[in-house]
Write a structure and sequence with these properties.
The chain has helices at residues 8-14, 20-31, 36-47, 58-66, 75-105, 111-116, 118-122, 124-139, 149-169, 178-181, 187-197, 199-207, 214-230, 242-256, 261-276, 285-293, 296-301, 308-328, 332-351, 365-371, 379-387. The chain contains 21 helices and no strands.
């Protein structure tokens, strides 16, 4: 298996590499008994847009300074990528839940980390919630400017990755098979996750019949390439254009996708959470969307139910709405079918309560107004949460 930039030899080596910079920070914090500083940073990032704790250990302060972004020639393209998110954010978050995350769960080696992380195993809703929060943070207007919320969010996630990596590698009661699985949260798995936010999201929009200009696709990738740098992904694994992004996605999927109990066990509660927070009478559509987006074999590996009626509805309506959009010059029907599902998902996250610091989903007012998001849960939501 080969590519102009990637091959099995290179990606095998990337499975043996973590994130030296962040790993060194965590090692120092562990040695000094200050690992709680990572949690404090995460709490702070989730509770406000920019401010960081004043009493952070010097090691963390230095890390934040060293990893802050510099001026980039891609700034204008990143803005165009942010504008795409502003236009199609609800659809993108729908794709995140029904395509990106299941594709990550299908990575039978990488999903082992998620399963070993107790908070994610016992509360899969948290995985969706926190992932969606980071996506909103980095893709909001100016989210990737120095010192802004998207930068702080990515910096905090990078440190949390290193903390999880440290804990798994030092868990004597449950040894990690590094020879078989690679380093926990290794460079190949990080690159695959980045592709699930960029290349796979753009593929999901295409599967919904939403045409995105190639130049705007490149802009969206440029924004996520910047995020990849903030997350500690090596330059050699950051695709330079969409052709390379699609190729890297294909190669990693061919290497890593397969059936696993852990993948199925992460997918089932995700589906359950989505079904519970889908409008009454439409509970089969999250699975139908997964079946629409995912390769058939991947959906089978994850045991995604195959609801014939809902799948037939998507098979009919998605091509039909694409034609109607072109004929009428309006996206009202598509928004009814796709956008409202995404908005419903956002409204659920705005109102969901999680244990720990991540209790409030942070959404810029501009996006709430643009997407017509209502913060208050509907009467039917309240009724279902109380009695069903």
């Amino acid at each position: 298996m080969s590519s102009s930039r990637w091959n099995d030899g290179l990606l095998d080596e990337m499975r043996r590499q973590g994130d030296p910079l962040a790993d060194t920070v965590i090692s120092k914090l562990s040695d000094s008994g200050q690992l709680s500083a990572v949690w404090e940073l995460m709490v702070c990032v989730t509770e406000n847009d920019v401010r960081v704790p004043a009493n952070l250990p010097r090691t963390v302060e230095e890390y934040l300074n060293v990893t802050s972004p510099q001026a980039t020639a891609d700034a204008l393209r990143i803005e165009e990528g942010e504008e795409l998110f502003e236009r199609h954010g609800p659809e993108i978050l729908l794709i995140l839940a029904c395509y990106s995350l299941p594709m990550a769960y299908a990575a039978h080696n990488g999903v082992q980390v998620l399963w070993k992380t107790k908070a994610l195993r016992e509360s899969p809703t948290r995985r969706l919630f926190e992932t969606a929060q980071m996506v909103v943070d980095v893709m909001r207007e100016r989210g990737l400017a120095a010192g802004e919320v998207g930068v702080r969010s990515a910096q905090a996630v990078r440190l949390m990755h290193a903390k999880i990596r440290h804990e798994i590698r030092h868990d004597e009661d449950h040894p990690w098979d590094e020879e078989k699985l690679g380093v926990p949260i290794n460079q190949e798995d990080l690159a695959g996750t980045l592709m699930s936010f960029s290349s796979i999201v753009l593929d999901g929009l295409k599967k919904l019949g939403i045409d995105i200009d190639p130049a705007i696709q490149e802009a969206y990738l440029a924004a996520w390439r910047a995020v990849g740098g903030l997350l500690g992904i090596q330059e050699s694994l950051l695709p330079g254009d969409m052709n390379e992004a699609r190729e890297l996605t294909r190669i990693i999927c061919s290497r890593q996708h397969g059936a696993s109990d852990e993948g199925r066990r992460m997918t089932a509660p995700l589906l359950h959470a989505l079904e519970r927070n889908t409008p009454l009478g439409f509970g089969g559509f999250p699975a139908a969307y997964m079946r629409w987006f995912l390769p058939g074999q991947v959906a089978d590996w994850l045991h995604v139910p195959n609801y014939k009626l809902e799948s037939l509805a998507l098979t009919v309506f998605i091509p039909a709405t694409r034609v109607l959009d072109r004929v009428t010059g309006s996206s009202e029907i598509r928004e009814l079918l796709f956008r409202r599902v995404g908005v419903q998902l956002i409204q659920w996250m705005l109102n969901v309560e999680l244990r720990g610091p991540t209790r409030k989903f942070r959404m810029p007012e501009k996006l709430e107004q643009k997407w017509r998001v209502r913060r208050e849960p509907s009467f039917l939501q309240l009724l279902r949460d109380r009695y069903f």
